[in-house]
Amino acid sequence: MVDVTVRGAGIFGLSIAWACARRGAKVQVVDPFGPGSGSSGGLVGALAPHVPENWNAKKAFQFDSLIMAEPFWQQVEGTGGVSPGYGRLGRLQPIPDTRSLDLARQREGSADQLWQGQAEWRVISTSQAGSWCPPSPTGFVIRDTLTARMHPRRACAALVAALEVMGVHVVANADDRGQVVHATGLAGLLELNDAYGKTVGNGVKGQAALLRFDAGEMPQLFADAVHIVPHADGTLAIGSTSERDYDDPTSTDSALNDVIDRATRALPLLHGAEMIERWAGVRPRSKSRAPMLGLHPLHQGQFIANGGFKIGFGMAPKVAEVMADLMLEDRDSIPDDFRPEVSL
Ligand SMILES: Cc1cc2nc3c(=O)[nH]c(=O)nc-3n(C[C@H](O)[C@H](O)[C@H](O)COP(=O)(O)OP(=O)(O)OC[C@H]3O[C@@H](n4cnc5c(N)ncnc54)[C@H](O)[C@@H]3O)c2cc1C
Q1: What is the pLDDT of residues 138-159, one digit of tens each?
Q2: Regarding the domain delimited by 4-85+147-198+287-342, which CATH topology (the fold level of the hierarchy) does it fall under?
Q3: CA Rg, the chain, in Å?
């Protein structure tokens, strides 16, 4: 049986540990701060696709991962008994002007072709979309059936529970054993910056809010550049800011108030909903903006999985599989754009 050491218990590390354990590896996960203590401990959880055009390796990888997400999270929940709050309920996006409306209509055809009938992208009228739909200047919205929701913090807890059942524990300290992968988020990028004396990656702060609002099985909304994500547990997340310059990675401020105001303007139903939590975290972003997967540039013979940036949760199911292929079976199916060298 192969041994695997995963350093970092965020969504990348936990998902890789899960994929390796399912293939029979003897896995340990090491995180001195505990599972979900980095960027993955948040609350938004929009698993949303890129626009279906100008197809490239990153979009194809993300599409595969979004399709893989449903069975992935079903298996995790079925094993550990903890729900990640996954649901593929789709998304509505108001269309602001006639140019965007033309583009959105062109993308109906490209989605049919690129998404291979596995999901739809359609332009529908706001009246067809129903009362949950935000107002749209053109009277039309995009409805896609690929977007899913999931509760990030609960997803980490679901993976930890499923790993426990598989005999995999998250510990604060342990020596390397077997194949080693570093999925240490921002800390891992800063280590690369120090070693190379330049920016290989950086952190982009995000602030988000969680309200008590039970929207049932309604689709998530993307309006005025804000994600509005109804969760399965009767809460609703609003996110996020995107800040390259920040002093305190964990504080929230008026920038979050602005995001909440925009959400409430798009969906006045949210007025007066109880605020449960204001949260901030730092997204690990590689210089190339793509995930950074493969051999570790500093630790010889070891591996790296980093750079999830804004879509780490959406990418995790496929990241886990390609990293398990590489580490356990020496099978390399990582897109060239995702190689660490691209950001060095
Ligand atoms: C406000 C906000 C909203 C977001 N919304 C979404 C969304 O809607 N959809 C989506 O897909 N993504 C979203 N993201 C992005 C997503 O959260 C990240 O891409 C993802 O969490 C990155 O996961 P990770 O495992 O690489 O890093 P992290 O979660 O940061 O995990 C790294 C882990 O490594 C540990 N660590 C650090 N140093 C060491 C060490 N030396 N040894 C061992 N462990 C170490 C840390 O404690 C941490 O637990 C959002 C992020 C933010 C901040």
Answers
A1: 999 999 999 999 999 999 999 9
A2: FAD/NAD(P)-binding domain (3.50.50)
A3: 20
134 C-alpha to ligand 1 centroid (Å): 30
- Answer whether 12 contacts ligand 1 (Cβ < 6 A): yes
Residue 223 beta carbon below 6 angstroms from any ligand 1 atom: no
Q: CATH 3.40.50.150: does it fit domain 201-286?
A: no
pTM above 0.70, yes or no: yes
204, containing H or E segment? strand 201-212
Whether the CB of 69 sits within 6 Å of ligand 1: no
Q: What angle do CA 117, 121, 125 make, to 5 degrees?
A: 140
Rounded Cα distance between 103 and 116, Å, is 20
Tens digits of residue pLDDT in 287-326:
999 999 999 999 999 999 999 999 999 999 999 999 999 9
Distance CA 88, CA 118 (A): 12
The pLDDT of 236-263, averaged and rounded, is 97
